[in-house]
Amino acid sequence: MEFGPRPEEHGLLVRPGAREEYPPEVRARLDADADVVVARYPNSRSALLPLLHLVQAEDGCITPAGIEFCAGRLGLTGAEVAAVATFYSMYRRDPTGDYYVGVCTNTLCAIMGGDAILAALEEHLDLPHGGTSADGKVTLEHIECNAACDYAPVVMVNWEFFDNQTPESARSLVDSLRSGERVSPSRGATLCTFRETARILAGFPDERPGALAEGGTAGDATLAGLRVAHERGMAAPDPAETSLILEPPSRDTEPVAEESAKDQPSPAPSATVPPDRSTSETDPAATDPGRKGD
């Protein structure tokens, strides 16, 4: 009997074609970038998450070469790095296209049409179980909630939001991505590739025009609850009138009664066995010894 994932199963770190080591020139470039990242942290181990994004920017997913690079730079074992890389869904274990398209299928998005959007894209891209399109442009998967429920159903591309989607708008979106058009999300700057996104997440500058623009406002759906609160005259309690710190009891108050069993030994095992309730309720002899043997 064989245990564990099958060799052909998706999501394996060690698989045919996965890079196992970096050429000297790539290693030198990654070392220089890693120096910048690690220097930000008093404890080098804290740099693991951004370093995983760095090697993902290099390979398009997490590879054995990336695992060993991070382990060597931070004084960790490969197993420790792999445990982190396989825990977080933001680290991909399969080769990823230029645009990682995730369709939320959690409760609210599903109710609002997320399942229909995912099915439409699977058919449109000929990816019945998700995966990457033949041209390598788009990787499609369902994703967990990304905290944009007020704009459900939501599609994310390289972690950027596309709100209030329909099967028709989602198909048009992936067609634009595959044709090389510049596409902007509902919020944020124009999309960059998955590898470029990973480098930004590693902590390097986001140089997209408008990426650091200030003055953005929340949308109407996000502010709906606040608007209703204003209309009904609702407000949060005044912090000055609310104590969030429990004051210690005064010496003048009566002492709290101690538990009756405190500092007492546990009772010894009983010499008698209590009656079986399931039997006593149906068998009169179980509760009336005088009727035994009747």
TrEMBL record:
Residues 249-262 have a biased composition (Basic and acidic residues). It comes from the Bacteria. Its EC number is 1.6.5.9. Transmembrane segments: none annotated. Pfam families: 2Fe-2S_thioredx. It is an enzyme of class 1 (oxidoreductase). GO terms for molecular function: 2 iron, 2 sulfur cluster binding; metal ion binding; NADH dehydrogenase (quinone) (non-electrogenic) activity. Its cofactor is [2Fe-2S] cluster. SUPFAM superfamilies: Thioredoxin-like (SSF52833). InterPro entries: NuoE-like (IPR002023), NuoE_dom (IPR042128), NuoE_N (IPR041921), Thioredoxin-like_sf (IPR036249). PROSITE patterns: COMPLEX1_24K (PS01099). Residues 234-294 are annotated as: Disordered. The keyword Ubl conjugation does not apply. Keywords: 2Fe-2S, Iron, Iron-sulfur, Metal-binding, Oxidoreductase. Belongs to the complex I 24 kDa subunit family. NCBIfam families: PRK07539.1-1 (NF005721). This is NADH-quinone oxidoreductase subunit NuoE. It comes from Rhodococcus opacus. The gene is nuoE.
